[in-house]
Design a protein that fits this description.
Structural class: mainly alpha
Strand content: 5-15%
Number of domains: 1
Helix content: 55-70%
Number of strands: 4
Strand order of the largest sheet: 1-2
Order of helices and strands: HEEHHHHEE
Oligomer: single chain
Amino acid sequence: MAQKTEKKIKKESDGLVHGFSIKQLIWFILGVLIAALGLVFLVLGLIEDYADIPNSILTSPNAGMIAALGGIDFKWFGVLAFLGVLIYALALSFASKNADREKEKEARREQRLKAMRDNNKGVVVNFDGSSSANSEKPL
């Protein structure tokens, strides 16, 4: 039981947070924030273009963005920023690859250890360096 606890503590201290490395977690959060920003700008652009609101508070900022970015308004800026979902998807993809790789690595290690235990069962090493097969375990 103590060995499993030590293994868990070691895994958490290796910089992994539930299958994510710190670098992947940062990219994941950045992708989510960019996607949320893109969604907000997309909705604001659609409201400004299609809602018939007199004296809209969105007209002036939208005109300023068009002037600053050379023709890109809220709507198209939102579409471009919504590509943050691509970053989000890539971070999830890499994290799942790493998690699968870790599981496979652990399974191979367990198989090797089991094979080593099965091969060494019943072998007695004499003091002169020779070994003899024995059906019972050595003391």
